[in-house]
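Section 3.1 - Work completed
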Amino acid sequence: MNEIVKPGAGVLFMKIGTHAQEELADIIARKKEEISKTGYGMWGYGGNTCHPASMVQPFARKFAQIGQPIHLCMETMNSSHIAAPMCAAEYSVDGVQWEEIPHTIEVRGSKYALVIDQLREEQLKLPLDQTRVPVGPSTGRLGSRYVKGRVDKACLSVLDAPELTNEGDPREIDIDLVATLREPYAVFLRGER
């Protein structure tokens, strides 16, 4: 355990790599610059396992109410995401009210974005056998049973101890990059600029 992945913590796990034809190192440098210039950045993503309104926002608010941050813990992987590198023009917290994305922020080739700050490279272990899904249709499912196959992101609560299973060796994921989510935590994206 460490100060980020500890019992009672909330963690949003995500696999990352090349995205919208941009290398990961370039994405990280651009996001750090966005945070420096704007005070926050937007980390784009897709898929419904971390839907902004039904998953990420309620998950993050639950931890904010008790004064705990949500850390985005990212595992690097080989990726060849070939979506067009178009930048979104607007964001929305609820999918109804839309605002312009600041020109100091670029979110490319994504349907949604996490709102982040304090992006840093950090090596740590995420023990999936010691996590549970706390929100959505898979509530209560052990993290090691949820994050597999095509599931590459998840909202997770860290348990006091690993759950014993008959599935062989415990699953630990090597985390390479960490950010802190900030309100409004996750947003919808639309348009092009």
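Second construct:
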Amino acid sequence: MLPFSFQLRDGEPVSDQIVRAAHHALASGELREGDLFPSVRALAQELKISPTTGHKVIQQLKDLGFLISRPGIGMVIQAPQLPSLEQRLAMMEPAARRFLDEARSLHLTIDEVEQLLRRLQSNQI
């Protein structure tokens, strides 16, 4: 069973969605350092994705520092140092594109969108 929850959406690579969901699960505490992460095979079976996609997910998480391989145990979650600004922005880009597309369809200006984001941010603190 997948150690975190999320729903796949159309229009975005599956591997990117899973990587982002794992990152959010770690940030929210749904995943903790030391938790086991599914193998490529288990990930592929659970999500009904190809093993190639499962391997890509695990490799991306390893490259980002979220997973380490422990001999005899498998893939284990680790809390990495904060990714670079470039990496964090790259992770946000798909969601930002969808958000901007929706804003355009509602005829909102960038200033109006910025006001919304600032209001939402101030409500989160």
